[in-house]
Amino acid sequence: MTITMLPRDHRHRLAPLLALYAAEMRGVLNGAATASPEAQAALLASHPAAEVLLAEEGGEAVGFAILFDLPEVVFARRCGNLDDLFVRPEARGRGIARALIAAAVREGEARGWSHLRWIVPEGDVAAIALYERIATRADWRSYVIRIDPGASL
Question: Which residues belong to any copy of the N-acetyltransferase domain (predicted)?
């Protein structure tokens, strides 16, 4: 398996993975509507701050992690935000998610991040099981104000 930072002009390659991810998240998020995979890939390609780690096996995309490099004002440093992480269902159980997170941590070490943070829906039991094994649960909760009810999480 290889993990690389996916160049912006190659992000269209994520469309098949994004379709699988969106379908899975609809189940976790109680049927919430999602955008088309092409719209999702276009957003990633055009977003100036989004970065994508891509996991491949045998030249096939099997997983991704979307990262943001953010200011961390408490420590006057930078931190990483892992916004989305996905591994194809048939590729799970082989350490790909763990390897994507490890690659994000290495990226953070190189950039001098104070920490890497992420959120996970309470209903994503498999992801929570992994995160409980490899990370420390944060001391804060996540809250949301829904501005567009059609984009509910």
Answer: 1-148
pLDDT 10s digits, 6-29? 998 898 888 899 888 888 877 766
CA atoms of 38 and 16, how far apart (whole Å): 9
Residues near 11 by beta carbon (within 8 Å), at least 6 away in sequence: 41, 44, 45, 52
What is the C-alpha to C-alpha distance for residues 95 and 91, in angstroms, rounded to an integer? 9
Helix boundaries (H) for the chain: 15-28, 37-46, 96-111, 125-134
| CATH of residue 8 | 3.40.630.30
The string of pLDDT tens digits covering residues 25-45 is 777 666 566 677 777 777 877
CA distance 26 to 145: 19
In Å, how far are 27, 50, 53 from 23, measured between CA atoms? Answer: 7, 22, 21
The number of residues in the chain equals 153
Q: How many domains does the chain contain in total?
A: 1
